[in-house]
């Protein structure tokens, strides 16, 4: 009698030997010592935001964000924050953006 070959004889790499790799919903955490965007209150995924106010010491602040769209799938999402002291002697501004288009161009900036 002839022995029937088993699939493992021909395809040993095709038989499951352990659990399949699991996909991740979020990237791995890295301890860089730098606060995350979320900790700084930066969220480029929000809808357009435009807020401002005055602090108890008289200093002012603002926060705004938006999205610019253009040809060939161009998209730029941005967020800006800033403020100044009550007497106007000191002012600060910060901007973050992410740009991309259909050609594969990508840019992150601050």
Automatic annotation (TrEMBL):
GO cellular component term of the entry, any: starch grain
Gene Ontology molecular-function annotations: starch binding
Claim: RNA-binding is one of the keywords in the record: no
Cited InterPro entries: Alpha-glucan_binding_chloro
Disordered, as annotated region: 1-37
GO biological process, one term: regulation of starch metabolic process
Major localization class: plastid
Top-level taxon of origin: Eukaryota
Keywords recorded for this protein, A-Z: Chloroplast, Plastid, Transit peptide
Subcellular location: Plastid, Chloroplast stroma
Amino acid composition bias (Basic and acidic residues), ranges on this chain: 26-37
PANTHER family assigned: INACTIVE PURPLE ACID PHOSPHATASE-LIKE PROTEIN, PROTEIN EARLY STARVATION 1, CHLOROPLASTIC
Family, per entry: Belongs to the ESV1 family.
Name this polypeptide is given: Uncharacterized protein
